[in-house]
Amino acid sequence: MTRNVLRVCFPWVLGVWMVAVILAAFFYAPTAQGFKGESSRIVFFHVPQAWVAVLAFCVNLVASIRYLRGRDPLDDARATAAARLGLVFSVLATVTGSLFARVMWGSFWNWDPREVSIAILLLVYAAYFALREMVADEERRGTLSAAYAVLAFVTMPFLIFVVPRIYWSLHPDTIISASGQLKFEMESRMRQVFVGSLAGFTGLFVWLYTVEVRLARVRISRARREEV
Amino acid sequence: MPIPESLIWVAAVTTVIWLGLFVYCIALDRRVRRLEEDQ
Questions:
Q1: For chain B, does the N or the C end have fewer beta carbons within 10 angstroms?
Q2: Binding-face residues of A in 164-223 toward B, CB within 8 A
């Protein structure tokens, strides 16, 4: 009963929450100094999207390890759903990042280390799906893709956190403040909107992931019934 | 193409992304609920 109420209410609460976040991002948060035009506002969406992508790849790793230990098809479905969402949110982070790059640096793509590393990460996880498509046998496909997911995850912290910090980058690191100071400092209204957006995008991920897993559960039980 | 610096352009892209994901999720949720009920 409570679960059903939650299932019905959650999307609408999330919808209202994110409408409030979008409005706040454009009308409540001040424009950050040191950015061209209104480009700083894209940070309220770009960073949460990147965060959700990292979260999704972490879930993919956990589900893959669980699959390798138990060979439960539902764990394979969980891993696939997480990887798919990770890929979608990585693409969205790339698109919003490109938009920011166009405003700030005059071009959608600048071969910046952070742009290149996200492109490599996209290729790494796109290969995960290519691998899945190549193997017909279900268990073999699950095992191979789970093993690949573990290896793919090893590259993720390097590509997201290490590589962009080793090389000189156009990408602003932690510079986002109303005063334009070059240190990690966010004006309180900006922080409120930023945290609200992080929560909203995390909620969206949880919702999408849950729905995809429910769909996989239905498919698996249907396939089992057909086998019998 | 609108001027990239304009608030409207940034707002439009972010809103379209959010709305797209939300509508996709609503549709998927309904589909899954129907399948669950069928079962």
A1: N
A2: 204, 207-208, 211-212, 214-215, 218, 221-222
